[in-house]
């Protein structure tokens, strides 16, 4: 089972990195909300929510990973649960980037109208 242990520790490191990314995304959303325009405010709120989801899913994955390590449970079902939970965090990360891109597209259109 050494391969399973190594894989589980890699999943643990990934969950920790996702937690860190979730915090950054949440802060990114808050920073956008500090701007005075309504576009940044509304999109910043959505991005902050994505950051919260990333952190929540990362924490969930970390708990599952720690259980796997402590109980030496490397069953496919548990490994799939960890991977699925981490995937959900990654989806929220991509959603945050998409929301930001949409905000920038709207901003470009607004600027284009004033030129």
CA-CA gap between termini: 64 Å
Helical stretch count?
3
Instruction: Please give the number of β-strands.
Output: 0
What is the molecular shape? elongated
Helix content: over 70%
**Low-confidence sequence ranges:** none
Alpha-carbon Rg, integer:
18 Å
Which structural category do the helix and sheet elements fall into? mainly alpha
- Mean pLDDT across all residues, rounded? 93
**Helix and strand element order:** HHH
Strand content: under 5%
Biggest β-sheet description: none
Explained architecture:
- The protein has 115 residues and is mainly α.
- The protein is elongated.
- The mean pLDDT is 93.
What are the defining features of this structure?
115 residues; mainly alpha; 3 helices; elongated
Question: Layout of SSEs?
Answer:
Elements: H1 2-33, H2 38-71, H3 76-113
Helix pairs in contact: 1-2, 1-3, 2-3
How would you sum up this structure in a few lines?
The protein is an all-alpha fold and 115 residues long.
